[in-house]
Amino acid sequence: MIAAGLLVAGSAMAAAIIEMPAAAKKNNCTACHSIYRRLVGPSWLDVSNKYKGVAKYTYGGQEYSLLEGLMLKVSKGGKGNWGEMPMPASDPAGAKQADIKALVTFVIGLEKTDDAKLAIKRIEDAKLAAKKAEEEEAAAVAKKAEKDKTAAKK
Fold this sequence. Notes:
Blueprint: H1 2-12, H2 22-26, H3 44-50, E1 56-59, E2 62-65, H4 66-76, H5 97-109, H6 115-153
Antiparallel strand pairs: 1-2
């Protein structure tokens, strides 16, 4: 019931959904990141909101402009900003800097999204939570059935 309501609400706001840039798909960013929800790494909307109003970024003990610092983080990788899962280097040789600059600029710009786009993130988060709850309930039912089956054999 809840999921159906979320789908209707999500459909009503579909026009506000931001599409993942082609460069993100081409460079395999989508394996770990989504715009609206956490996968392996943080959602890009969360990244954007974290750095909202920030002008500087420290990488490797040196201070850079936010754009340059985040480009270094994406290019060379790192860990600690979003938990223990490290971000692998995406461009250690420096051959994809145009794509990385475009993607970092895109991510930073997400903080300017409007309320409808943030509402979609909340809907995506709610759908993910509902799916997890359904999976946990199904696992509990299966576990109980197995326990009952074992008890019946005795």
